[in-house]
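Here is a complete protein record:
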Amino acid sequence: MGTLIVYSTKYGCTEDCAKKLSEKLNDGAVLCNLKKDKAPELSKYDKVVIGGSMYVGSIQKEVSEFCKNNLESLKNKKLGLYICAMQKDDVIESELKSAFPEELGARAASKECFGGEFIFSKMNFLDKLIVKKVSKIDKDTSTISVDKIDKFAAAMNNV
């Protein structure tokens, strides 16, 4: 059995993190972008990693629906949960906790925020406007932490 990494991404940051993570897992991993692909049969995997990006305090609906629709099966898996977000400290802890069902969060072997990105060339006009106004950021910015991805992978390799 192996590891399945399911995720949803809007501009590619969460997908990039999923790919980096898959390279660090001992048993490799099958990647599934929930926006494009139908989730594979969970019975084929003993570990499942779920990732998504946060927008206005919520994780993408594809991730929420995947968790809701597979809750009972996921409870029997070794789990890892991650988000990509640009918030800091206490806000990140709150967003990470609220992103996934409580039953999954309590069982996860690893939970982490890998950081986030604002890459303006990938963003639509409205998102650019909001980021510039709210975040006061007007140039490409990345806070992705390879160390956090490494730590997450190590935890998943040890379960």
Summary: The radius of gyration is 15 Å. Helices lie at 13-24, 61-69, 71-74, 89-99, 102-107, 125-135, 146-157. Strands lie at 2-8, 30-33, 45-55, 58-59, 78-84, 110-113, 117-118, 141-142.
